[in-house]
Fold Cytochrome P450.
Amino acid sequence: MFSGIRQEEVQLLMRQLFKNCKGCTAKVELQSMFSELAFNIMVRVITGNRYYGEHVVNLEFRDIIKEILDLSYECNFGDLMPVLQWVDFQEMEKRMLRLQRKTDVFLQDLVDEHRMMRSNSSSSSEDRKKTTINVMLSLQEENPEYYTDEIIKGIILQAATDTSAVTIEWAMALLLNHPEDCTIGNFDIPRGTMLLVNAWAIHRDPKVWVEPTKFKPERLVEGGEEEGYKLIPFGLGRRGCPGAGLEPWVC
């Protein structure tokens, strides 16, 4: 449903690259461009608007995301020395709480804005933007007790862009550094071959998992069989995806 958004954002990125090169060979810093690409695709799917580059409607969302990333990247000495958590001399907790309130207000305004647009247009209107928020509001009308505003805002916050941008960045780096045929794990890979990681097979490998074909969510929770670290989609460690909390339901 949102393939047109992805295509349009990639075209805008290519247009920007050509503009920067000005018809000649030039060095281009792609890391920030990939981040903006992933972010714009995600927020357009969710809200229908862009928040980076040309035709930007609102800069507040971009600033909020920047604050979130800055806090997540910052070294918290309380993680290294738990006793410092009582002092919070870096004011990490205060900053996080302040950012949480700011984010909640912004997301609530987004939800209210889309709800108002829905009420001002007919239910059969084709002009209504197809966004994740609109889809969730439709579900809210059918089941208001479950699809609350808090649930909708929580789902919006689960949208990750950093992992996509980093993946594209590494893929580009590997393509630039290894443009010819290569050998990976005793497999000969011809130039131009498209490779896909078979997560389905990895998650059902009996050499890795105990009873891999059985639904055992307890294997992923604390005190279980401690197999959760083998689950691929969310990454590992401090930089892992916040969606890791959903692991038992993904298994």
